[in-house]
Specification:
Length: 733
């Protein structure tokens, strides 16, 4: 039997296992096998979308496919089926010769056999058995529909995993729109809702998970209340009945300017508005004469909108017209913010806050109620402890179940992992939304900066073959001064003295080294030597530098939007900085054509400028800068570029990370110029040397002078730019 015949028989055997073709005779299956074509769909691919014309019948050979629909009234998704090997899809549109009613999404790398519509129609007409198999397949899929099917609360099993899903949303949002998440089904998050057709609710829920497909099932009010009382009510602050004859509660009003005013809640209801007859009078263009009504009855608070144009908002959501209030709810009227608290509770914290503090105490995590803090709690919980751990400098999520950290310079694998890949994807999407950027198939890479300054770089499939990967380089809140670097052993006092001299006499310095060697920290420390009366322009891709001088301008690049507009590159910022009367320009890192602009700025009067470059050695640093200059798109000879490099750069401070995890300056090298063969001349002023071993047998290093005196030293002294260094300072040691 030939290879072609073996392949044909293999495909025939595959068809025999499908619902549609299992009852067809052998010869017919072989003929159908000859008509099949192969198609591959990477994980995350949308195979077809609703309202597209039918193109093929698909038979899954390997992989998993989700078939989902969309309610046209609410826009809410629902999962029709999760398909695997031997299942078919796409037949609905082929049978009706119309548009696709569903969306097909590859949950994993998927291979399919396909049939064209014409051949599929011919098979149905000539082979009645295929119609019988097709009807069985359709019935099974219809039985799998997962939308608006009422289920009793008692039948739901709420595991620890389910409670983590609940944490994806604020409790007040769950309470306001009466829903709760149940499980993940394919790419969808399944919600139980008392009203799955509430468009306002769906719109607000989607704000928290903008890229997460949702589907819903209906639950009764009684079942929802049972869930709420069981799982959420214990963590909410309770309204307590109080002592007789005293005022138990007060309304706290925060004015637009930050002033706080308190009003006793000494009756069953309080009106709020701009008219003088209100119990609480607020002034402003957006405050109606009778704006809102606060009520207190049977240990229950409510707020009602009295028909105002600007509306009443509770925790950021506009009410219509009345909702219940809890002690920690924030009511917004125009530019005013109100909340209710117990008398004497100022500074005490409500029960809900105490509960939250207990949770954080158990996990040894700081309480962080900022938007980013909520993202960390809800989505990055497996690595949250490392984000708050000052001994951890880098977090590397290789995949959802493989997480490494760098602690005190050493890499180690942790036992942490995300619940499944979708949780990691959701965390990344929320980070991207928080920083105003996007990551998707068209933009599979993300560079972002968290509010604390930490840098995030992420790559998603298909570029990341193991799945979504995230690397977080934490931003140290401790300002690493040059003194602190000396304590850490990065350099010694002699090197510090020389570098301070070089900065004060306005030498252009490049800090080089590999990834994670401390280049930014060194650049930050060197910048402290710049005199306070000089104007500094700082250019960065992600803001990290913490300059201590007052007179500074901080500029940051910006990626283009999804239409390719609005991007600001480092070259753009360099061009702008030259028009901003800089005394010195500091570039966080050069990686491309901006290197040529940086050299030109250094060569045109902006002495004392600094930047960082990734490289393996001082000479490699200059070679990399030459290469980056060639990327600028300007036709210059190599010798011309080298002349620019040799005249613009005076010192290279090179760092490395040693085997023990420590970061050290290994070379301070002066650039002397260029010889007649266009070779750049260099000399080491300081080099790192092994001077012995400790008790454990590990080498001891020290940064020593080489005996070379910098060419600029005598010239700088003649001009009176700095005080002379101690005699024999540069003597070889």
């Amino acid at each position: 039997m030939g290879i072609r015949e073996k392949v044909r028989m293999g495909v025939e055997d595959f068809l025999a296992r499908t619902d549609v073709f299992m009852n067809v005779n052998l010869d017919t299956r072989i003929k159908i096998a000859q008509k099949l074509r192969s198609a591959h769909f990477p994980a995350g691919t949308t195979i077809f979308s609703p309202r597209e014309r039918a193109e093929h019948l698909y038979i899954i050979r390997n992989g998993n496919v989700e078939i989902s629909g969309e309610d046209r009234e609410t826009g809410l998704g629902y999962v029709v089926a999760l398909l695997k090997r031997y299942n078919i899809f796409g037949e609905t549109a082929l049978l009706t010769d119309g548009e696709q009613p569903f969306r097909a999404y590859a949950l994993s790398d998927t291979d399919c056999y396909t049939l064209s519509p014409k051949i599929f129609q011919q098979i149905l007409l000539k082979i009645p058995e295929t119609g019988v198999g097709l009807s069985k397949s359709l019935i099974v899929q219809l039985e799998r529909v997962y939308f608006e099917r009422s289920i009793p609360f008692s039948s739901l099993s709420h595991t620890e995993h389910d409670l983590q899903l609940i944490q994806l949303f604020p409790i007040q949002l769950i309470k306001r729109f009466r829903f709760f998440p149940i499980e993940r089904r394919g790419s969808h998050l399944v919600l139980a809702m008392t009203n799955p057709r509430d468009r306002v609710a769906i719109e607000q829920i989607r704000k928290y998970l903008p890229d997460q497909p949702l589907c819903a099932i209906a639950v009764s009010e009684r079942e929802w209340q049972s869930f709420f009382d069981t799982y959420l009510a214990p963590s909410l602050p309770k309204m307590r009945s109080g002592e007789k004859g005293g005022v138990l509660y007060q309304v706290v009003v925060e004015h637009p300017g930050g002033e706080i005013e308190r009003f006793p809640f000494n009756s069953n209801q309080i009106t709020v508005g701009s008219a003088s007859e209100n119990e609480i009078v607020l002034r402003g263009k957006r405050i109606a004469p009778r704006h809102a009504l606060l009520r207190h009855a049977e240990n229950r608070f409510t707020v009602r909108d009295l028909g105002s144009k600007s509306g009443v908002f509770v925790n950021g959501f506009r009410i219509d017209p009345q909702v219940d209030l809890e002690l920690d709810d924030t009511v917004t009227l125009g530019e005013y913010k109100l909340h209710i608290e117990r008398c004497g509770a100022e500074g005490e914290g409500a029960e809900g806050e105490e509960h939250t503090q207990e949770v954080y105490a158990e996990s040894n995590l700081p309480q962080d109620d900022s938007p980013m803090g909520r993202i960390i709690r809800s989505f990055l919980y497996p690595i949250a402890e490392y984000l708050y751990d000052p001994t951890v400098s880098e977090i590397m999520v290789n995949s959802w179940e493989e997480i490494y950290i760098e602690r005190r310079g050493r890499l180690m694998r942790t036992d942490k992992k995300f619940d499944d890949p979708s949780f990691l994807d959701m965390a990344l999407n929320n980070i991207a939304q928080f920083v105003g950027r996007r990551i998707d198939a068209e933009n599979p890479r993300l560079d972002a900066r968290l509010p604390d300054g930490s840098r995030v770089h992420a790559v998603i499939p298909p570029c990341a073959r193991q799945g979504t990967t995230i690397t977080i380089r934490k931003f140290t809140k401790e300002k690493l001064t040059i003194e602190r670097l000396i304590e850490l052993g990065t350099l010694n006092e002699a090197a510090r003295t020389f570098l301070e001299f070089a900065v004060r006499v306005r030498k252009n310095i490049v800090v080089s080294g590999g990834s994670g060697t401390g280049k930014t920290s060194m650049l930050n420390a060197l910048s402290a030597f710049i005199p306070a009366d000089q104007r500094i322009i700082v250019l960065e891709d992600a803001s990290e530098l913490q300059l201590q001088q007052e007179h500074k301008v901080l500029l940051e690049t910006r990626p283009p939007d999804k239409h390719g507009r609005g991007g600001v590159t480092m070259r753009d910022l360099l061009h702008s900085s030259l028009r901003m009367r800089p005394d010195r320009i500091i570039v966080g890192e050069v990686r491309g054509g901006e290197a040529l602009d940086m050299l030109q700025a250094m060569n045109t009067g902006h002495l004392g400028s600094m930047t960082t470059v990734h490289s393996n050695a001082p000479r490699d640093t200059l070679a990399r800068i030459e290469t980056m200059c060639l990327m600028a798109g300007v036709e210059l000879s190599l010798s011309a570029i080298r002349e620019q490099v040799a005249s613009a750069i005076h010192l290279v401070v090179h760092l490395e990370r040693l085997a023990d995890g420590s970061r050290k300056v290994v070379n301070i090298t002066e650039i002397l110029g260029i010889d007649r063969h266009a070779n750049i001349l260099m000399q080491d002023i300081f080099t790192l040397r092994a001077i012995g071993t400790n008790k454990a047998g590990q080498p001891i290093f020290d940064l020593r002078t080489t005996g070379n005196v910098p060419a600029f030293y005598t010239y700088a002294l003649k001009l009176g730019l700095a005080s002379p260094l101690p005699k024999d300072f540069f003597k070889e040691r």
